Amino acid sequence: MPDITDINKTYGEHRVLEHFSLHIEEGRTTCIMGRSGCGKTTLLRILMGLEQADEDFGGSREMAAMKKSAVFQEDRLCENLSVMANIRLTCPDRTKAQIQEEMREVDLEGCAGQPVHELSGGMKRRVALLRALLAPGDILFLDEPFKGLDEETRQKVIAYTARKCQGRTVLFVTHDEREAGLMKAAAVISMEALC
Ligand SMILES: Nc1ncnc2c1ncn2[C@@H]1O[C@H](COP(=O)(O)OP(=O)(O)OP(=O)(O)O)[C@@H](O)[C@H]1O
């Protein structure tokens, strides 16, 4: 895993990241915490290649070459496709039976054929999470993945996610310190707001 060094990012006059560096633990979960607006999502978007930093940064080429999967703060599902079709988009090599098995783990059994637009917000969240967790990849980005789940479901889904993340390289953004513990994060990085 490359060390990420010296990321700068400004939006107009607003400086969000200044000489930001990050060590990502290979095969482990690295948790990123910080106040709302301090730049966590911006950092993830830059590392995913969805946003450009102000200039080239250390590790950018290696990062660009990696296969990535992600859960964004928004679900970003194909609303008219079924749950199964959405998940299979990222893991076509898995059988439907295998995917059904994973769906059961997060209480989504019975809705494989349902179009996503018919699901509740919490169900959509779990579909987005499964889609990312089942996708093969070198690095997994999780941006507040458990947002909007009721407490009982959240506990179950966090435990499942922690199991699926074992041995994988994961960057995980949360506002909740307990989630970092439950996800067995190897490191917790506190981002400071620049203004
Ligand atoms: N496309 C954009 N154009 C202008 N400003 C932006 C843009 N994207 C983000 N920002 C600003 O950059 C700052 C960091 O935003 P970012 O979404 O990275 O914060 P965050 O730490 O992820 O916040 P939260 O915890 O609320 O999700 C904010 O002040 C935000 O308004």
TrEMBL record:
One protein family per Pfam: ABC_tran
UniProt entry tagged with the keyword Phosphoprotein: no
Keyword Nucleotide-binding tagged: yes
Protein species of origin: Faecalicatena fissicatena
Domain ABC transporter: 2-195
Phylogenetic lineage: Bacteria, Bacillati, Bacillota, Clostridia, Lachnospirales
Entry coiled-coil feature ranges: none
Keywords, comma-separated and alphabetical: ATP-binding, Nucleotide-binding, Transport
Protein name: ATP-binding cassette domain-containing protein
Top-rank lineage group of the source organism: Bacteria
InterPro entries: AAA+_ATPase, ABC_transporter-like_ATP-bd, ABC_transporter-like_CS, ABC_transporter_ATP-bind, P-loop_NTPase
PANTHER family documented for this protein: ALIPHATIC SULFONATES IMPORT ATP-BINDING PROTEIN SSUB 2, TAURINE IMPORT ATP-BINDING PROTEIN-RELATED
GO molecular function: ATP binding
